[in-house]
Amino acid sequence: MISIDEKSIIKTIENYLSEYRSIFYKLSFHIFVLLITAILSTQEVRSIRFLYDNFINRYWDKALNSFYYFLSYTKFSVESLMFATVKVALTLIPEELKSSVTIFLITGDTLQAKFGDKFDCYGKLFDRTKHDGTSFLNGHCFVSLAISIPILVYGKIKYITLPVGYKIYDKSETKLEIAGNMIQNIMPLLKDYQVIVLCDSWYTKKPFLNILQQNKFV
Questions:
Q1: How far lies 69's CA from each of 31, 120, 160, in Å?
Q2: What angle do CA 18, 19, 23 make, to 5 degrees?
Q3: What percentage of the chain carries pLDDT values higher than 90?
């Protein structure tokens, strides 16, 4: 393995990711950092093998299977990852803005096409945007949550939007319940802010709105 300077970009990324350290065991945290670094460096996630072949394998002596094992068997909490992500995001808001600005939470569902049918939670999904002669695709459906926060850029308020989490729709919960529970999970961090939830009209049903009402969003 090559030596990496303490002031390098990779070490800087690792320092920023230290908020996630308590979620993982030591070895698992190292693999987590490598995956995030690889994603940031390649700017795309075709597959774990793609990340491994195009970045990780060039600089670290790690077996490909260790990354598959991490994602398949390591028992880390997705809710804890989301909580830590929002906690990091809120540190970007300047102190002088915290009492007067609005934070936006954005939720919706995202379709991910798959080739073949050998996948968990695989299904035939309706896609209203397809223009290839069919309105359906083979793949996964994810419920997504993002946060939009204000920062100062040359003295002016600008908003940046950061992904908080994605959960696959496996039919154990409705998409409305998944979205509501993801928001409820991060609410303790947002109690001192004005928060507006952005979603399309399909989400404005009781299972979702009831959770928001319990947290005084509506």
A1: 10, 16, 33
A2: 95
A3: 35
- Taking only the tens place, the pLDDT of each residue in 24-40 is 988 899 899 999 989 98
The answer to whether residues 87 and 190 touch, using CB atoms and an 8 Å cutoff, is: no
Alpha-carbon gap, residue 213 to 218, rounded angstroms: 5
What is d(CA 92, CA 101) in angstroms, rounded to the nearest whole number? 13
- Rounded to whole angstroms, how far apart are CA atoms 184 and 178? 10
Contact 107, 203 (CB under 8 A): yes
Mean pLDDT computed over every residue of the chain: 84
Question: How, if at all, do strands 123-126 and 102-113 pair?
Answer: unpaired
CA–chain centroid gap for 24, Å, is 17
- Show the tokens assigned to 49: 């093998």
**Residue type (1 letter), 131:** H
HSE, side-chain direction, 13 A CA sphere, residue 59? 12
Distance in angstroms (rounded) separating the CA atoms of residues 125 and 118: 15
Tens of pLDDT, residue by residue over 147-200, are: 999 999 998 999 999 999 988 888 888 889 999 999 999 999 998 898 999 988
Q: What tokens does 136 get?
A: 């359906």
- pLDDT for residue 9: 73
Render pLDDT for 168-178 as a digit per residue (tens, 0 to 9): 888 888 889 99
Q: Which residue has the tokens 């990852």?
A: 81
* Phi, psi of 127, rounded to the nearest 5 degrees: -130, 105
Query: Strand, helix or coil at 84?
Result: helix
